[in-house]
Write a structure and sequence with these properties.
Helix 2 links the parallel strand 2 and strand 3. The protein has 13 helices and eleven strands. It is α/β, with parallel strands linked by helices. It has helices at about 15-25, 45-55, 70-80, 100-110, 150-155, 170-180, 205-220, 225-245, 245-250, 255-260, 265-270, 275-285, 295-300, and strands at about 5-10, 35-40, 60, 85-90, 90-95, 110-115, 120, 135-140, 145-150, 185, 190-195. The longest helix has 20 residues, at about 225-245. The protein folds into two domains: about 5-195, Spore Coat Polysaccharide Biosynthesis Protein SpsA, Chain A (Alpha-Beta Complex), CATH 3.90.550.10; about 205-300, no CATH class.
Length: about 300
């Protein structure tokens, strides 16, 4: 039985970017088994465009924006495909045979849960002309706009925390993957074009959301007593980042502190701590990717998922 691939895209008021992405997806050979789109609080004609031009795609409409994290989680749960390729509304595969090669990657690597691909992105102009993205390696996180995930693993490990709304769902899920014996791989044999739209992006708001969610992840995953030191480290590091951005960022740091505190009771109820040796090994993996299977075995042992 062949491995099937679905594409999921969460979009919020970026119809022009989505239009370009869907046009590229239509040229892939073979096409995806299905394309799932969530219009998350869109009021720019996105819904009408998709219904008129791509009625074959599965469209979900959220009248009120709930964030990309919950949207992606819902799409994962509603598809029957074996592999789900996550894209932003402004990202798409470069290789026309991307979906022919992707299933083989997972079939040949049975412990692979997440494959993250290099991006040729306008955010990083040097990547547009890069001729070599280096060797593939194991990593401690990934980027949703350029990632494929084994759906069965996603469901088994609990998916994405809806309360995150947006940001930090990637490292939180990667942590659960490696703790359970699954591998997260930066795979350079395939590439993604990320046009990186500036629409609907706010740097300070993203920083606050990322910092809040990072702390919530610590509360849910880090064992005691280490969680107190890890939480303090995360908060200080985020403050250090704000310091580099200037006084206007520093004076607004308490905004995310308060938001994080409000979510503590809810996160504590969902707390499922990971054994410290594996949590620490994951933190090391985030800082220092592993280049080989032997290196993976040395750091994580032969723990089978």
């Amino acid at each position: 039985m062949s491995t099937t691939v679905a594409v999921c895209i969460a979009t919020h008021n970026r119809r022009d970017d989505l239009e370009n992405t869907l046009a590229v997806l239509a040229q892939l050979d073979p096409p995806p088994a299905e394309v799932l789109i969530t219009a998350d609080g869109c009021h720019d004609g996105t819904v009408e465009f998709v219904r008129a031009h791509y009625p074959q795609h599965r469209l979900t409409v959220n009248p009120i924006a709930g964030g990309s994290t919950g949207s992606r989680d819902t799409m994962f749960r509603s598809t029957a495909a074996d592999i789900v390729l996550i894209l932003d509304d402004d990202s798409h595969p470069i290789e026309t045979d991307f979906l022919a090669r992707l299933p083989r990657l997972f079939e040949e690597n049975p412990r692979l849960a997440v494959a993250n691909f290099p991006q040729r992105s306008d955010e990083f102009p040097e990547s547009l002309q890069a001729t070599d993205f280096g060797p593939s390696h194991f990593a401690g996180t990934y980027v949703n706009c350029a990632t494929a995930i084994r759906r069965a693993v996603f469901i088994a490990l609990g998916g994405y925390p809806a309360e995150f709304r947006i940001a930090y769902d990637e490292p939180d899920f990667a942590l659960r993957c490696v703790s359970a014996g699954w591998q997260v791989r930066y795979e350079t044999s395939l590439t993604i074009r990320h046009h990186y739209s500036g629409v609907m992006r706010n740097g300070m708001r993203m920083h606050h959301t990322h910092a809040r969610n990072e702390l919530w992840s610590v509360l849910m995953r880090c064992p005691a007593p280490q969680l107190f030191g890890v939480a303090l480290f995360r908060a200080v590091r985020q403050f250090g980042y704000a310091w580099t951005r200037g006084p206007s960022w520093v004076v607004r740091e308490p905004k995310w502190w308060l938001a994080a505190l409000r979510g503590v009771p809810r996160c504590w109820k969902k707390r499922q701590p990971i054994p410290w040796p594996r949590y620490r090994a994951w933190m090391e993996l985030v800082r220092r990717p592993i280049q080989s299977e032997a290196g993976w075995q040395a750091q994580f042992g032969d723990h089978q998922p």
